[in-house]
Write a structure and sequence with these properties.
alpha+beta, Aminopeptidase, seven-stranded mixed beta sheet, two-stranded antiparallel ribbon, 5 helices, 11 strands, binds coenzyme A
């Protein structure tokens, strides 16, 4: 099975001689101040986007929820210095990706994950997914679960790469009645499962801190 351990970052500029277009990325908690950007990301990522009210509730009222975001380590406009290199072309967005989990004791549920279209294919989704798993694991999760549209092959690749396996279906789960595949990653508390993922997370964190290629 393809996984995070046997593939390199496809479009990182690390060591690839693309200095001048490098954009170091940071990861941390999503806040209310990010919600406008989250709405824009939702609109270009999902057929049935969540509303502002849903996200506001998630961040302020749902004690089970944890959300992370990815952003340029130093947000800057065209041609401005970014982390020692210079990002050319379009101005950098204030938010590049976001994802969330809900905690139910020993289970964590991945509720959403999205990367801006122009920034996809740079392992940002993989990095964010692993960071969400680390967060849930720190809070006691032993198993991670999620639903994914049966047609969403890219997302399924992302999850399978982290070791998720199909465990069932939810018929007509989505508002447009598409089926969901249920995926799960068990035994996260065991070192034999977690350490390889932790190693990949650390490697991706180092790569992202050095910078990825910013889109044109
Ligand atoms: C799913 C998503 C988060 C992946 O983000 P990303 O940053 O592009 O993901 P990565 O670069 O880490 O790639 C993850 C896997 O997807 C594959 N992938 C990414 N873009 C791809 C593309 N255009 N075509 C085929 N495979 C692709 C990668 O090859 C990788 O698989 P591999 O490990 O077998 O090589 C992103 O496509 C997205 O935001 N999609 C819309 C929202 C969505 O569907 N979210 C999931 C809901 S369940």
């Amino acid at each position: 099975m393809a996984n995070f351990l046997n593939r390199g970052q496809r479009r990182s500029n690390a060591g690839a001689g693309t200095a001048g277009r490098s954009c170091p990325l940071a990861i941390g908690p999503l806040t209310l101040a990010d919600l406008e950007s989250v709405m824009a990301l939702e609109a270009v990522s999902f057929p049935s986007p969540w509303t502002l009210g849903t996200y506001h509730h998630e961040l302020t009222r749902n004690s089970r929820s944890r959300y992370l975001k990815v952003w340029p380590a130093r947000a800057a406009g065209a041609g401005a210095p970014v982390g020692g290199a210079v990002a050319q072309g379009a101005a950098l967005p204030s938010l590049i990706a976001q994802g969330g989990i809900m905690l139910f004791g020993a289970e964590m549920h991945i509720v959403t994950i999205a990367v801006l279209p122009a920034w996809r294919g740079r392992s940002i989704g993989a990095w964010l997914l692993l960071a969400l798993l680390a967060l849930g694991r720190e809070e006691g999760a032993h198993t991670a679960t999620l639903e994914v549209r049966v047609s969403n092959e890219i997302a399924q690749r992302l999850y399978r790469g982290a070791g998720f396996e199909a465990v069932g279906y939810r018929r007509r789960y989505y508002p447009d009645r598409e089926d969901a595949r249920i995926l799960a990653l068990a035994e996260l508390h065991r070192d034999s499962v977690w350490q390889p993922l932790r190693k990949r997370l650390d490697a991706l964190s180092a790569l992202m801190a050095r910078g990825v290629e910013a889109p044109g």
